[in-house]
Amino acid sequence: MPQTDVLAVVGTCPPERHRYAAGLAADTARTFFPAARLAMALDPVDEALALAPWAETSAGAVVEFPTGTPVTEVIGEFAHPSSPARLIGITCVVDAPHLLDDLGRDDYFAHRAPGGARTYRACALAAVTHIEYASTIVLVGWDALTTPDLSRTLAILSALSPRARLRLHPAPFPAPEQPAEYAAAQERPGWIAVLNDDHAPHMTDQRVSALRYEALRPFHPARLAALLDGRIESGDFGTVLRSAGFCRLATRPGTVAHWEHVGRMLSFQPLATDAELGADDELLAAGQDIAFLGLDLDGRALCAALDAACLTDDEVAAGRAAWALLDDPFPAWEEAGTD
């Protein structure tokens, strides 16, 4: 049985997302499966996979996903070899006047994980990952912005998702959807492009920039926390909209953590331990490797402040036994690779 082509529509502004998704389905003669229908299921992604083969037209389906659906789960499930549907694009609908507010939210919404368990997901993280993994970003409400604000908004979106097509809606001229290939592993996010040294957004603005921070020494947790809660939070180096990458804390040696930050939401999650590496495995990061994207960034001052949050010469020389005694205000985590 041939796979059904599916265009996914995501976004954290339900009214605008729904209107666009319904219009897209009508304009492209595709069957429309709205978010309200998927939200009744324990797992919206599984529900989408079950519904897609029942599309009533040969063109396939437009599936609008509920706000809390992790877009990486959508990609992973649809890219599975046994999937009955083929993901040919992810359209993220962004409410232009509220983009910075959406990226700066500090609240959470409930999400039903596979199996029906209820978890909580940061709204800002949902907003930024929808943008980062999109093949097309549709900007609604853009006509309410001044020309400089529109330029800056487009540049932010392009920095976050440099491979996405940007479209204004209502569009000044027609721009048909173009299929995009989605495999299980994706390198669409701008922060990954920064770490790969190939970040080349096609929309730019002099206030929007990105930088890569690298350091071999681990962070002193207390100094890092003070920097994050103090000078970075207060905007001393400009507005950091998004940072992500890999880091190491001195009190947790041998473990590489995923640095995940957007707006006022920050987390460190263990990814791997050095002890788990095989002879042919590549080290994720020897120390710090973090991408920063934002407005009016003072990259030199930010990197100097991050350097100051790493261990000093004397602290490095003291060794791991001394590092274990350092103040560490961050939440404890389970060892990477454990259940």
Automatic annotation (TrEMBL):
<protein>
    <recommendedName>
        <fullName>CobW C-terminal domain-containing protein</fullName>
    </recommendedName>
</protein>
<feature type="domain" description="CobW C-terminal">
    <location>
        <begin position="208"/>
        <end position="310"/>
    </location>
</feature>
<dbReference type="Pfam" id="PF07683">
    <property type="entry name" value="CobW_C"/>
</dbReference>
<dbReference type="InterPro" id="IPR011629">
    <property type="entry name" value="CobW-like_C"/>
</dbReference>
<dbReference type="InterPro" id="IPR051927">
    <property type="entry name" value="Zn_Chap_cDPG_Synth"/>
</dbReference>
